[in-house]
UniProtKB/TrEMBL annotation:
Ranges of residues in domain GHMP kinase C-terminal: 380-439
Keywords assigned by UniProt, alphabetized: ATP-binding, Kinase, Lipid biosynthesis, Lipid metabolism, Nucleotide-binding, Steroid biosynthesis, Steroid metabolism, Transferase
UniProt catalytic activity: (R)-5-phosphomevalonate + ATP = (R)-5-diphosphomevalonate + ADP
InterPro entries: Erg8, GHMP_kinase_C_dom, GHMP_kinase_N_dom, Phosphomevalonate_kinase, Ribosomal_Su5_D2-typ_SF, Ribsml_uS5_D2-typ_fold_subgr
Listed name of the protein: Phosphomevalonate kinase
Domain GHMP kinase N-terminal: 162-230
Length: 493
């Protein structure tokens, strides 16, 4: 292949934060339309790899690949580079090693004959656009975001960028690892059509391991799984599957493929495809006050340990609300399929009143109204349990400032549910709104989306900036054509 471009989506953990660290509980993960792109092209010198991230200052990394004895391969960074990128370096190192094991030395040497030029780019949503909106004198509303050129330069170094929580490192690792595996023909293009193909599973296992290694810890892995398979109900793998590879010497002595092979049954993660109900829209906002996920996680897990049986019960009840939310949201897709007209009519009716006032008396299909009422009730129940978890563990999972903002959102007409994604904290919120079809002739400024946007734009107690992302219906990473992606060709040159 002369040019390989692979994209992978970002994620929002709508429900299941903390619980998903335990394989007993599922996480409800929505993958986003905002994606990370890796483009691989022929380089200019044998065995040399140049990786560029044109949205950042000092973000060119030069490597040379040294193929040693047997299946040993080393990727050495040039000492004259002004910065390092552990995630990129490890992705190259481990993926080359895996490819060498699968395809042999000659094949690798052949693909690297002219070296490789790799460009990495993330959609603007992965990094806060607040400063840019300010510079351009634009209000923080959705329509302003489309006035920022795609793949805009962040103006800073990678280490200084303000991330929005969409999982930049997981999407980056997934797009880079999958692009390398495809470019070296270690997985096939044809296999991508099948969500369950062993090639996609190999890409998952490799990306999951490399992401853990780069992060220096084994998280639940829901972010990599979303980048590989799309929106889903996720149950994690037992971390012991990669224990051997995570130790300092593990990766070099044994073969990577023995652990990363799709036929290795120790990869016991479970992925059930998920999608939000038709005629709804997920809205995301970046809130200007970051939280440190690892320190929140440490404290919550310590509290869980200390509380013993009481915490177990709490986990079970929250897990059951999370599952119920997922189930009722999925049931709405079936109700839509059964009677599209009744569904759309009900959406139009419900979008005119706050969820608290939804009732059957106002017409609309009873099962559809009931399912939306239940979605609202479960989402609010989850919020209240997450707040309780935070106060019992002594960490700001849904801190009072976020509670006030979310209460204002849920009180708007046509809002189904809202919350703090993932580990929670101060940095982001999600809101699910009804999005009536054009045929419902809802006036533009009466759409739930606009009510929520207005709340955000006028909120003064926190700085709330919308993200353009919506739910992605793509099932995971995909091969792209450069010219189909607005702005991509521009940053490659
Ligand atoms: N556009 C990019 N180009 C290259 N590397 C990136 C890019 N975005 C993120 N990364 C890598 O991901 C790391 C951030 O990882 P992490 O702090 O875990 O963030 P996140 O929570 O977004 O996953 C960066 O230090 C860098 O190595
Ligand atoms: C606590 C968690 O269950 C969820 C954290 O989700 P976030 O979406 O908050 O994560 P980051 O991308 O690391 O900021 C930890 C985990 O599942 O690994």
């Amino acid at each position: 292949m002369s040019e390989t471009v692979v994209s992978a989506s970002g994620k929002v953990l709508v429900a299941g934060g903390y619980l998903v660290l335990d394989p007993k509980y599922s996480g409800l993960v929505v993958s986003t339309s905002s994606r990370f792109y890796t483009c691989i092209r022929k380089g200019s010198a044998s065995q040399k790899i140049v990786v560029k991230s044109p949205q950042f200052q000092e973000a060119t990394w030069n490597y040379s690949v040294e193929v040693g004895e047997g299946e040993n391969v080393d990727v050495v960074q040039s000492s004259s580079d002004s910065s390092k990128n552990k995630f990129v370096h490890l992705a190259l190192q481990k993926t080359f090693r895996l490819v060498l094991e699968l395809k042999g030395r000659e094949h690798v040497a052949n693909v690297l004959r002219d070296g490789l030029d790799i460009t990495i780019a993330g959609d603007n949503d992965f990094y806060s656009q607040r400063a840019k909106l300010g510079e351009l004198g634009l209000k923080p509303i959705l329509s302003s975001l489309s006035k920022i050129p795609p793949f805009a330069h962040t103006g800073v170094k990678l280490s200084d960028v303000h991330k929005t929580g969409l999982g930049s490192s997981a999407a980056l690792i997934t797009s880079l690892v999958a692009a390398l595996l495809l470019h070296f023909n270690a997985i096939s293009v044809a296999s991508l059509d099948d969500l369950l193909s062993s090639d996609r599973q190999l890409a998952h296992n490799a990306a999951q391991f490399i992401h853990c290694l780069a992060q220096g810890k084994v998280g639940s892995g829901f972010d990599v799984s979303a980048a590989i398979f799309g929106s889903q109900l996720y149950r994690r793998f037992e971390p012991s599957v990669i224990d051997g590879l995570m130790s300092a010497t593990g990766g070099e002595s044994g073969k990577l493929i023995d652990t990363l092979s799709p036929s290795n049954k120790a990869w016991n993660y479970v992925v059930k495809p998920f999608q939000l109900p038709p005629c709804t829209r997920l809205m995301l906002a970046d809130v200007d006050a970051g939280s440190d996920t690892p320190s929140l996680v440490g404290k919550v897990l310590k509290w869980r340990q200390a509380e013993g049986e009481a915490a177990h019960l709490f986990w079970d009840q929250l897990g059951s609300s999370n599952d119920s939310l997922a189930k009722v949201l999925l049931s709405l897709t079936d109700l839509y399929a059964e009677d599209k007209a009744a569904y759309e009519e009900t959406i139009a009716i419900l979008s005119r009143a706050p969820a608290e006032q939804w009732s059957f008396s106002a017409n609309g299909s009873v099962p559809i109204v009931t399912a939306f009422q239940a979605s609202y009730a479960y989402a609010e129940d989850i919020r209240s349990r997450m707040r309780e978890m935070g106060s019992r563990a002594g960490v700001p999972i849904e801190p009072p400032e976020q509670t006030e903002l979310l209460n204002a959102c849920i009180a708007q007409p046509g809002v189904v549910g809202c919350g703090v994604p993932g580990a929670g904290g101060y940095d982001a919120i999600w809101v699910l709104v009804l999005d009536p079809p054009q045929s419902a002739q809802t006036k533009e400024d009466e759409r739930p989306l606009h009510h929520v946007e207005n709340v955000w734009a006028s909120w003064t107690k926190l700085d709330v900036s919308p993200l353009s992302a919506t739910e992605s219906f793509e099932k995971g990473f995909r091969l792209e054509k450069t010219d189909d992606i607005p702005g991509l060709r521009g940053i490659l040159s």
